[in-house]
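User: Um, what's this?
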Amino acid sequence: MSTPKNKNTPPVSIDNKLRHAPNGYALIPLGVFLLTYLVVSIIAGDFYKMPITVAFLLSSVVAIAISKGGPLNYRIEQFCRGAANSNIMLMVLIFILAGAFAQTAKAMGAIDATVNLALSILPSHLLATGIFITACFISTSVGTSVGTIVALAPVAVGIAEKAGIPDAMMLGVVVSGAMFGDNLSFISDTTIVATRTQSCEMSDKFKVNIRIALPLALFTILLYTLIGQQFSLTEAVGPVEWVKILPYLVVIITAICGVNVLLVLFLGVLLSGITGLFTNGFDIWGWTSAMGEGIIGMGELIIISLLAGGMLEMIRYNGGIDWIILKLVSRVRSRKGAEGCISALVGFANLCTANNTIALIMTGPIARDIAQKFQVDPRRSASLLDIFSCFVQGIIPYGAQLLIAAGLGETSPIEIMRYLYYPYMLGIGGILAILSGFPRKYARKI
């Protein structure tokens, strides 16, 4: 005797089919988001006219409505699975602790003290350059762009205010430097996944990658130096209070040592609070109030992360990513075409997942098959995978990097996108490397 089935639960066979059948219509929610937010904002001439939360809400409703995942209750449940997956929850925890740390550090004077130190060391025309180089160093040492942005974004905004530099520009500088290290670091998740899926050594992938990325970083340094000529200090540099800089030093040092980003932020909150109490920056209630204010200030980012996670899961679940993979792979005819396909593959996957590590895990094995079939050097395919995953991750307004930078800088992620010079050049540099076969030593047939 068979067990009666719940009418709200679709058959297992249908479920499995929907998870794997390529379906271009599954990408409609992403198109709705881009149309609702980017296009409407451009037409209106103001990126604050259309709240990004509303754009994600509309695209999420569309994602649930067009899904073929069975009854409405089941489709909503699938959406919630995407919103509550471990990566999204990790982002939410980072947002909470980052907000608490940033506001506590600001309330007790750590940001002002650190800004005064930077201003006393660097001339005003080299402030953007100095922050970019610092972000490059930290992110390469840490292996994570998120940790770098959390550590430097508040300081960058403080410097911007005193030097007359747009906040969005300095946040763009931080994100740019953070993506440099995310792409090249030996301990970065993207480097590890890219090299493992392509079966090559990290040092070999680095040799290919650095030949493309380093000239772009040097050009970015020159660009920031030239742009910095038009800015000068608008306020007098205050005294450097070393005791208040301690929390930031601990955050940076522990991050460089590879300590978990959540533990780094917790230590930052704790040390900022203790320092504030010791220096009479606030009392215990002032500390708790600062933490609460910082957490509440991250509310919009948390909402965006949950809605984006759910929407992107519906795209994946209904076959949107599989459809992109099928279309790209079917058009490969040459070795350069294979390299372009590998790059586009991870780029589109990143666009639909908002996580470069997940995009690499999804597309890495497929990229390896393409590389072997068209005799692409695995060191080169690993480098292209990492370059284009970091390029897309560094510019999408709903990615963790721009959301955290925007939250800590109290600005729009779209405003920051105007100043992401290095990520844009990384994408252009990757395309030119494919077209020209640079570096030629690694572009030969294997």
